Amino acid sequence: MGEGRAPLHFWETGEGPPLVLVHGGLSNGLLAWSRTAEALSAYHRLIVVDRRGHGKSPRLPRPYTIASDARDLVQLAAALGLERLHLAGHSYGALVAYEMAVRTPQAVASLHLIEPPMLTIAADVPEVQALIRRSLDLWREAGRLRSEELAARFLAMVAGEAFVQQVRTRPVWSELVAEAGRLPYEENPAAYMPPAFTAANFRFPVRVYRGGRSHPALRIVAERLAHWIPGARLIHVPEAYHEVHKSGAPFEEALLDVTRG
């Protein structure tokens, strides 16, 4: 397993066509993808990034935006000499992956969007409206909250109070709290307006993944996004929660069906 820094911190493993993995909020590359990497590295050269402000990547400059995160990925791909790559992102990282695909479609071999919180495309749906309001409230208060409270409220919003109570007892809780410190400085995905017209320019396979046990609003958004992007397919994993990529074989086989193709 190798590591590097150019301009983001990343680690890589495996051989084959490059596949860049982008983590979501309250996370980092290792925390999000270590379990999945073991299966995918048999087929791909994996580049697993820490987004700016997360993990071992630089903290500055800020504020962080989805567009600036995408620029970081474009620069990283150039630094590594990756002319064409497969790209997968989870949650906030899926928005970043989408934005990178918009900016450099010629560099993308396939795009895999795992429950992206692109809430504005379904803002007419009551469940999505409620999540937007809750998200806007949290971001307004974020600068006044300690990291532990930020982590608890964010996870409760996405996964429910029962999940927060469970995860507080696990060793991973301290890592989630540490990563929550980025939130007050980042763009709220509930306000993200995707450049709709550019999706028609995608000439590569697009898969949108959703978990059957995830937040109802995120399931709705995933389905709408799969219809909204021409040629995209929705991959529904009934037993998965928001972290669909941690479901194991159902996610890995769906992704590899495209990337090995």
Outline the fold blueprint.
Elements: E1 2-5, E2 9-13, E3 18-22, H1 29-40, E4 45-49, H2 66-79, E5 85-90, H3 92-103, E6 108-114, H4 126-141, H5 147-159, H6 161-167, H7 172-179, E7 206-211, H8 216-228, E8 233-237, H9 249-259
Parallel strand pairs: 3-4, 3-5, 5-6, 6-7, 7-8
Antiparallel strand pairs: 1-2, 2-4
What does this structure look like?
The protein is of the alpha/beta class and 261 residues long. The chain has helices at residues 29-40, 66-79, 92-103, 126-141, 147-159, 161-167, 172-179, 216-228, 249-259, and strands at residues 2-5, 9-13, 18-22, 45-49, 85-90, 108-114, 206-211, 233-237. The chain is built from 9 helices and 8 strands. The chain has an 8-stranded mixed beta sheet with strand order 1-2-4-3-5-6-7-8, sandwiched between helices. Mean pLDDT is 94; it is low at 1-5.
Helix content: 40-55%
Poorly predicted spans: 1-5
Query: Strand order across the biggest sheet?
Result: 1-2-4-3-5-6-7-8
Query: Rg from C-alpha positions?
Result: 17 Å
Task: List the secondary-structure elements in sequence, H or E.
Answer: EEEHEHEHEHHHHEHEH
Helix segment tally:
9
- How far apart, in Å, are the first and last alpha carbons? 25 Å
Helix/strand-derived class?
alpha/beta
Total strand segments: 8
In this structure, how is the largest beta sheet organized? 8 strands, mixed
Roughly what fraction of the amino acids lie in strands?
15-25%
Large-scale geometry: globular
